[in-house]
Specification:
By secondary structure, the protein is mainly alpha-helical. Helix content is 51%, strand content 10%. The chain has one domain. The longest helix is centred in the first third of the chain and has 20 residues.
């Protein structure tokens, strides 16, 4: 991965997390959360509908023109990172 592609993907990830928390319950500013603290479990205090999360992911991939070869990894990184917990049909996951 080139340095410029890596920077683009990092910017896309930060944008995606900001959008996810803006649409979470309760809404929050991602930049104000302790996301750099490896021991923090702050993301467990927030939840987002799975459908909304997937829409935000797809829109971010489109807006930042993430290459197809990196899309699956991008999504996995978001899911396994500090994204809010998801709700599927009204249940938490």
């Amino acid at each position: 991965m080139t340095k410029s592609l890596n920077e683009k993907i990092n910017k896309a990830m930060m944008h995606c997390y900001r959008q996810l928390y803006a649409h979470a319950t309760p809404p929050a500013r991602f930049d104000d959360l302790p996301y750099l603290d490896k021991e923090s479990k702050f993301f467990m205090d927030y939840e987002i509908e799975q459908e909304v999360m997937l829409e935000i992911l797809e829109q971010t991939i489109k807006d930042f023109k993430i290459p197809k070869a990196y899309r699956s990894g991008f999504k996995t990184t978001i899911f396994l990172g500090c994204a809010p917990k998801t709700k599927i049909d009204g249940t938490e996951r």
